[in-house]
């Protein structure tokens, strides 16, 4: 007798030998794969997984370590340094040349390690976003990691899903799949479960859904025939997209600025060399070293590394606050967002629903209970309803519940819903009314379904009644169902539809913020097995309305307030009823004064009118996904920077068009996630506000790092130029400058990349995206501090030189002065305008203090350790020297604080510009 093993082996053989699954009947395929219509038993999957491995495409080969290391040398500065190192070597300055080349190697090593760290940070984010698949196992619908799929698994496909493996379709309803990754064809192709000829080419295998392609419409089930590298996409050598490069528009601007700066500095260094040798008659080799010194002094070598780290830190901080960045530029854009358009359900509200009210043709009922638990009470004006009424309500709930796909489950921490929470609430209502759903499903088996979609806003199912007739059940938005119904049920009687009554009920229930759902039924002749749209166009009878509560999230209310304080307008875009939307919007603190615009209103507005109205109104109701796209365009035309949330496949265009597209991590489809710049791990609006705050902080910290680093270079360059012009020896030598730029500056600046958000950061207006990185004010700050630094260094230099100190001591004192200046200026830079002479300002960032301590320790080594003395030409200092140095450096701290104060006084006098 054949063992299970043998079967699995045969199946393996089939799936890897390119078996023509597309040509074989679905039932036969299931059998060949040892599976069934209700999927695999969970117990059988471990073995299959061991046999076929994870359902994952091979990782792209990493650039080899050597290549990555080599890449670090490819930059103008390094070329300059290498050339200088070689020339100094030829000139016989062994130690200098050794130090310069050593710096080159250290720089490359730092770059190498940094790049690796940044990449693994992004890799980590990608893992947080790994796709899921819906499968049937043991006959139960479950969501599992796509990696865990095995051949034989039965997968459920819905619009927006990325097909997780190669599937032979078992049944398909209106399924359309976009197969561009495989065939290059971007028009979606229809799919069906019927076999196609064995010799059909890939693009014509209509009975298959291939891994990596995108479901654009319809619903289907299919059995996995190949996973991982054995799939069609795996076989053409497609690889997992590698992590994006660590770059953003800002960094690119900075890099090109850096290149221009380098070239300009090289020219300047050349001129200085010419001036020194020709005009001042300095020796060529001494002048060459001076020119190299100038070049390395003026180029901010550490800046690129600090920028990359700053960005990586920001991305990780956002991830900790549940906002996962998919495209790095979003980190910057988030800081300048002026409008956030958010979905309502699940993002601004909790998406934990409960039926609170029921309206029938003759009465209103209140429902109480907790969550999805089956116990609760139903009353009518406070009194228990009569038995006959309860039976009518149970009929209504049963009809609604049979027209649901969700399921309720009792776990360790109470009842929870698997699937749509709104449907969960209906199931809970049915339970509260004593309906036995297992029995109801057995008595009325489902034959067909028209799934819910945001376009037509209802869902319909066809069942076989015990008497053999067909039973249609419809649940959906009341406006839609009121259009379709011509009668209503009242007790046992069927009466003509009383539109006025229902409209009044609808307005009253929606006005309290309840989400509304209508339930209607119709009978069909016994022979019907399939449901068509035409079946819903006449003969429907309305049973009643359900009012569901979906309270706003507490955190969302606070987050909306924070956004508004930050000059960001929050707008709600929902498929819900306008009255419901307005009631919830009011509780969230959105502007409800101008009322709500519905999708239908939007259709009537032309582009210019829409741009105007979209700015005024904060609540958009009964919208469909195309409206989101129009709104994004309208707001952008009005000069806004728009963040837009979305979850469905149809939201993808709006997410792509928005400046920051935000997809929901939990209820979002793969299509939406792939179109988005950012994914919210918890679907919560508050995470958007957190991401905006982090985005602003990253940008601020990058600015702080630049404002910190540039004056050091400015001070050094001015010192060297001044010395050459005055015909003096260099106060700081080239190798000493390298030490400062590559060691002390980077160590100190690193602390700024980790600066926490400033307290007032969410009370400032959004940054203009075209605003230059270095505003006029910051440009001024760089010049101001450069001048103070050069004055202090020259002061110490002159003092010691006049006193006739040894040149090594003079230079050691000068270098230590510059480093100490940097250390105090680091404290100034913690806040660009706010004072730092406070407890928080001086002690608030332990990393800054740690960095300063580290640098002081390094300076002691630099001054007293014999090998350092040999390399950098330093000499030991006496205790009194340190006092002098401290006195030379400390004034900077106070001068910058005075400058800030003057500046704050000025902006306070001109509040409009603040
Ligand atoms: P958003 O997340 O944009 O706020 P929404 O949840 O408010 O969206 P939709 O999901 O498009 O909007 O729902 C719109 C309306 O469709 C609901 O008010 C409800 O009447 C109806 N509806 C929602 N879900 C279902 C469903 N599963 N079956 C039938 N009708 C539904």
Automatic annotation (TrEMBL):
Key words of the record: ATP-binding, Magnesium, Membrane, Nucleotide-binding, Phosphoprotein, Translocase, Transmembrane, Transmembrane helix
Composition skew (Basic and acidic residues), residue ranges: 1-16
SUPFAM superfamilies: Calcium ATPase, transduction domain A, Calcium ATPase, transmembrane domain M, HAD-like, Metal cation-transporting ATPase, ATP-binding domain N
Transmembrane segments: 76-94, 100-118, 254-275, 287-313, 705-728, 734-757, 778-797, 809-827, 847-865, 877-896
Topology in the lipid bilayer: Multi-pass membrane protein
Annotated GO CC locations: endomembrane system; plasma membrane
Region (Disordered): 1-21
Residue ranges constituting the Cation-transporting P-type ATPase N-terminal domain according to the UniProt record: 20-93
Record-linked SMART domains: Cation_ATPase_N (SM00831)
Family membership: Belongs to the cation transport ATPase (P-type) (TC 3.A.3) family. Type IIA subfamily.
Name listed for the protein in its UniProt record: HAD-IC family P-type ATPase
Species: Marinimicrococcus flavescens
């Amino acid at each position: 007798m054949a063992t299970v093993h043998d079967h699995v082996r045969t199946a393996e053989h089939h799936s890897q030998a390119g078996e023509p699954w597309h040509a074989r009947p679905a039932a036969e395929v299931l059998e060949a794969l040892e599976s069934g219509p209700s999927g695999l038993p969970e117990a059988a999957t471990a073995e299959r997984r061991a046999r076929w491995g994870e359902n994952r495409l091979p990782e792209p080969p990493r650039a080899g370590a050597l290549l990555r290391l080599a890449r670090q040398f490819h930059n103008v500065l390094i070329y300059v340094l290498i050339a200088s190192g070689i020339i100094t070597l030829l000139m016989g300055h062994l130690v200098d040349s050794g130090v310069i080349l050593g710096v080159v190697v250290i720089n490359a090593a730092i770059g190498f390690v940094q790049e690796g760290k940044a990449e693994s940070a992004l890799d980590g984010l990608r893992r947080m976003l790994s796709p899921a698949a819906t499968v049937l196992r043991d006959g139960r619908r479950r969501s599992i990691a796509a990696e865990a799929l095995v051949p034989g698994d039965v997968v459920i496909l819905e619009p927006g899903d990325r097909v997780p493996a190669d599937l032979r379709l078992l049944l398909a309803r209106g399924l359309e799949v976009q197969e561009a990754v495989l065939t290059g064809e971007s028009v979606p192709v229809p799919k069906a479960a019927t076999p196609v000829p064995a010799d059909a080419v890939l693009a014509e295998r209509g009975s298959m859904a291939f891994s990596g392609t995108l479901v654009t419409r319809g619903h289907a089930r299919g059995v996995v025939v190949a996973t991982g590298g054995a799939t069609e996409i795996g076989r053409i050598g497609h690889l997992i997209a590698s992590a994006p490069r660590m770059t953003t528009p800002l960094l690119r601007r900075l890099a090109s600025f850096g290149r221009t700066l380098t070239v300009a500095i090289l020219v300047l260094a050349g001129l200085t060399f010419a001036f020194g040798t020709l005009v001042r008659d300095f020796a060529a080799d001494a002048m060459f070293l001076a020119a190299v010194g100038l070049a390395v002094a003026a180029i901010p070598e550490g800046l690129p590394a600090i920028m990359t780290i700053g960005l990586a830190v920001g991305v990780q901080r956002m991830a900790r606050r549940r906002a996962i960045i998919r495209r790095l530029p979003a980190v910057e854009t988030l800081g300048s967002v002026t409008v956030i358009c958010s979905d309502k359900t699940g993002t601004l509200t909790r998406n934990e629903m409960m039926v609170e009210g029921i309206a029938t043709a003759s009465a209103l009922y209140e429902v109480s209970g907790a969550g999805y638990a089956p116990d609760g009470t139903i009353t009518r004006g406070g009194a228990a309803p009569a038995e006959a009424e309860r039976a009518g309500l149970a009929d209504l709930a049963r009809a609604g519940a049979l027209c649901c796909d969700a399921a309720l489950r009792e776990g360790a921490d109470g009842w929870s819903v698997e699937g749509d929470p709104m449907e969960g609430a209906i199931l809970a209502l049915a339970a509260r009314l004593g309906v036995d759903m297992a029995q109801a499903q057995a008595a009325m088996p489902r034959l067909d379904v028209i799934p819910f979609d945001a376009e037509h806003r209802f869902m319909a199912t066809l069942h076989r009644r015990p008497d053999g007739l067909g039973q249609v059940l419809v649940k959906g938005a009341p406006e839609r169902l009121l259009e379709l119904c011509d009668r209503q049920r009242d007790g046992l009687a069927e009466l003509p539809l009383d539109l006025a009554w229902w409209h009044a009920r609808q307005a009253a229930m929606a006005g309290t913020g309840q989400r509304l759902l209508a339930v209607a039924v119709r009978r069909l002749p016994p022979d019907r097995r399939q449901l068509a749209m035409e079946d819903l166009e006449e003969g429907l009878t309305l049973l009643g309305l359900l009012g569901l509560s979906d309270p706003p999230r507490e955190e969302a209310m606070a987050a909306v307030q924070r956004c508004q304080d930050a000059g960001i307008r929050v707008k709600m875009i929902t498929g819900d009823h306008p009255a419901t939307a307005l009631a919830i919007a009011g509780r969230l603190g959105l502007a409800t004064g101008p009322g709500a615009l519905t999708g239908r209103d939007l259709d009537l507005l032309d582009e210019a009118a829409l741009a105007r109205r979209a700015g005024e109104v904060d609540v958009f109701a009964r919208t469909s996904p195309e409206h989101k796209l129009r709104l994004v365009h309208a707001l952008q035309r009005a000069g806004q920077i728009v963040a837009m949330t979305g979850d469905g496949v149809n939201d993808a265009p709006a997410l792509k068009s928005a400046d920051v597209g935000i997809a929901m991590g939990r209820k979002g489809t793969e299509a939406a996630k792939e179109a988005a710049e950012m994914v919210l791990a918890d679907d919560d609006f508050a995470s958007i506000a957190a991401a905006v705050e982090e985005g602003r902080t990253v940008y601020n910290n990058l600015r702080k790092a630049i404002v910190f680093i540039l004056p050091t270079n400015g001070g050094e360059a001015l010192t060297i130029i001044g010395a050459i012009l005055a015909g003096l020896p260099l106060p700081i030598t080239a190798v000493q400058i390298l030490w400062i730029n590559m060691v002390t500056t980077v160590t100190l600046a690193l602390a700024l990349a980790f600066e926490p958000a400033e307290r007032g950061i969410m009370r400032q207006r959004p940054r203009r995206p075209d605003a230059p990185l270095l505003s006029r004010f910051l440009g001024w700050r760089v010049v101001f501090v450069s001048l103070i630094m050069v004055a202090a260094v020259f002061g110490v230099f002159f003092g010691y030189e006049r006193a006739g100190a040894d040149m090594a001591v003079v230079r050691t004192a000068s270098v230590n002065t510059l480093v100490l200046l940097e250390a105090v200026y680091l404290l100034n830079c913690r806040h660009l305008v706010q004072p730092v002479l406070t407890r928080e300002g001086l002690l608030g960032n332990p990393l800054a203090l740690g960095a300063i301590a580290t640098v002081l320790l390094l300076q002691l080594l630099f001054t007293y350790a014999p090998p350092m003395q040999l390399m950098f030409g330093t000499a030991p200092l006496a205790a009194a020297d340190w006092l002098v140095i401290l006195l030379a450096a400390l004034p900077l701290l106070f001068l910058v604080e005075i400058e800030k104060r003057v500046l704050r006084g000025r902006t306070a006098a001109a509040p409009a510009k603040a």
